[in-house]
């Protein structure tokens, strides 16, 4: 069946050995997008065979990050450690077919072999001393040595595939030694713990994966995995190896190099759709389109426009993308997100206030994140603290009579609207012989805690009337 005819099944297979960052999650975004674009299935698999470093906490962080970004999986999560019996059964299948064998070479012998090869300026590799061949005499089985199990890599020729990102890739089989597919068995076990490269193939085979979309650090694993697929009587899936995501210093994005958990961006006020938009453009393109909705992204996404060069993360660009998505978002949709930001500061009531959407609409075009919107809206939900410099500049004794006069005029308004507030300003300005900036700036500082805001009558109309009057009188 051709690539276009097969029902698409993709997977994301993170290791739960720490938090998941943007470079990791992009390797989950693209297979999710491809499955959604082709009406297929997206499978989540947790590769937790590194038992010393894997943790349930890391699994929870993976699930939380994917949930926030809206990367819902159709099947799973499947855990490799729960599938050990299946892997061992397939190892036994290869042993029975003569496609794998027990190797009793000790770690000390492997170290000595490696030193000899390096001294001879040869590439270190297992020399096949326990590989059974017609007419070959194997060494006697040593006592007390638990063997590993190695896969019999085909000899001669090459293995090749057409990668959807990198094009034709070919490896000579002479470069590939016999891969360990199971570690030494513990007492009472017939077969030890199977290894990563082997488990991945069994998983992809059992789960019917049609397209493997992953980071290009897996390219060197691919020829070995292709051989195992074929030994098990299956054709390998389509491979697409994504270039690395670099951090702002040009290094590979990683925890060691300052990468943040995906959920940190949620906490800092980024929108999930904006992060998805940004990440998609960090290695894929649709012409010159920079800003798009999730629906557009799904309808446009394919594997033919994946980039071949590394993408470099730029937080300033991410903030710009987020700002565009804030502008595109309905004000009502931002209310719970801004409420969450304010709740972190101990300020509550935004979600229940019917004026919240209007307040957000007034300020969101000035903001890059929901945290910045919360900065503005905090003046409606708690006390303000103007800086000493702004107080000294704008709240002089000379302006206080005008502020009191405005407070009296505003207190007398029967209708609390921007238009009515504007008329009250005009009356006080005329009576006091002032121009609008001379009064508006002090009013902003006294009521809003800052000298710069959108139109002052619009800003004040979204306060409670008594709060505005009180702050003016107390200035």
From TrEMBL:
GO BP field: glutamyl-tRNA aminoacylation
Aminoacyl-tRNA synthetase class I anticodon-binding domain mapped to chain residues: 351-475
PROSITE patterns documented for this protein: AA_TRNA_LIGASE_I (PS00178)
EC number, as in UniProt: 6.1.1.17
EC class: ligase
Entry superkingdom: Bacteria
Compartment(s) of residence: Cytoplasm
Domain (Glutamyl/glutaminyl-tRNA synthetase class Ib catalytic): residue spans on this chain: 8-320
Assigned keywords, A-Z: Aminoacyl-tRNA synthetase, ATP-binding, Cytoplasm, Ligase, Nucleotide-binding, Protein biosynthesis
GO cellular component, as recorded: cytosol
Keyword field contains Ion transport: no
CDD domains in the cross-refs: GluRS_core
Catalytic activity: tRNA(Glu) + L-glutamate + ATP = L-glutamyl-tRNA(Glu) + AMP + diphosphate
Pfam families per the UniProt record, alphabetical: Anticodon_2 (PF19269), tRNA-synt_1c (PF00749)
Residue numbers binding ATP: 255
Molecular function GO terms recorded: ATP binding; glutamate-tRNA ligase activity; tRNA binding; zinc ion binding
Span of the annotated motif 'KMSKS' region: 252-256
Main location per the UniProt record: cytoplasm
Oligomer status and interactors: Monomer.
Function: Catalyzes the attachment of glutamate to tRNA(Glu) in a two-step reaction: glutamate is first activated by ATP to form Glu-AMP and then transferred to the acceptor end of tRNA(Glu).
Assigned protein family: Belongs to the class-I aminoacyl-tRNA synthetase family. Glutamate--tRNA ligase type 1 subfamily.
Designated name of the protein: Glutamate--tRNA ligase
Organism: Aquariibacter albus
Gene: gltX
């Amino acid at each position: 069946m051709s690539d276009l005819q097969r029902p698409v099944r993709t997977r994301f297979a993170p290791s739960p050995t720490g938090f998941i960052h943007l470079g990791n999650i992009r390797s989950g975004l693209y297979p999710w997008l491809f499955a959604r674009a082709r009406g297929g299935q997206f499978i989540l698999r947790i590769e937790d065979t590194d038992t010393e470093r894997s943790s349930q906490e890391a699994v929870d962080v993976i699930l939380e990050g994917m949930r926030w970004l809206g990367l819902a999986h159709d099947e799973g999560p499947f855990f490799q450690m729960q599938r050990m019996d299946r892997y061992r059964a397939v190892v036994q299948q290869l042993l029975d077919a003569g496609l794998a064998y027990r190797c009793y070479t000790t770690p000390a012998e492997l170290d000595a072999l490696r030193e000899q090869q390096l001294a001879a300026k040869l590439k270190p590799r297992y020399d096949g001393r326990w590989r059974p061949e017609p007419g070959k005499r194997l060494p006697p089985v040593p006592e007390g040595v638990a063997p590993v199990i190695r896969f019999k890599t085909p000899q001669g020729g090459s293995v090749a595939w057409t990668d959807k990102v990198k094009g034709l890739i070919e490896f000579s089989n002479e470069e590939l030694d016999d891969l360990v597919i199971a570690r030494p068995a513990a007492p009472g076990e017939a077969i030890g713990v199977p290894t990563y490269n082997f488990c991945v193939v069994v998983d992809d085979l059992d789960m019917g994966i049609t397209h493997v979309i992953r980071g290009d650090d897996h390219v060197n694993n691919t020829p070995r995995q292709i051989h195992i697929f074929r030994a098990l009587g299956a054709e390998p899936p389509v491979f697409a190896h994504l270039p690395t995501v670099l951090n702002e210093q040009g290094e590979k994005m990683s925890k060691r190099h300052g990468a943040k958990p995906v959920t940190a961006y949620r906490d800092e006020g980024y929108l999930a759709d904006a992060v998805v938009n940004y990440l998609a453009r960090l290695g894929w393109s649709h012409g010159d389109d920079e800003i798009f909705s999730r629906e557009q992204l799904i309808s446009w996404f394919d594997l033919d426009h994946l980039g071949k060069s590394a993408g470099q993360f730029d937080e300033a660009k991410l903030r710009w993308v987020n700002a565009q998505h804030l502008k595109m978002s309905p004000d009502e949709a931002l209310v719970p997100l801004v409420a969450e930001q304010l709740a972190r500061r101990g300020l509550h009531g935004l979600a229940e206030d019917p004026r919240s959407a209007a307040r957000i609409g007034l300020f969101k075009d000035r903001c890059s994140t929901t945290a910045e919107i919360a900065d503005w809206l905090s003046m409606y939900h708690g006390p303000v603290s103007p800086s000493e410099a702004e107080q000294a500049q704008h709240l002089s004794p000379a302006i206080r009579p005008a502020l009191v006069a405005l407070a009296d005029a505003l207190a007398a308004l029967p209708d609390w609207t921007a238009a009515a507030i504007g008329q009250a300003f005009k009356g006080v300005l005329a009576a006091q012989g002032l121009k609008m900036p001379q009064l508006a700036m002090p009013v902003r500082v006294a009521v809003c805690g800052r000298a710069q805001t959108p139109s002052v009558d619009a800003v004040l109309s979204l306060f409670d009337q008594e709060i505005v009057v009180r702050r003016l009188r107390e200035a």
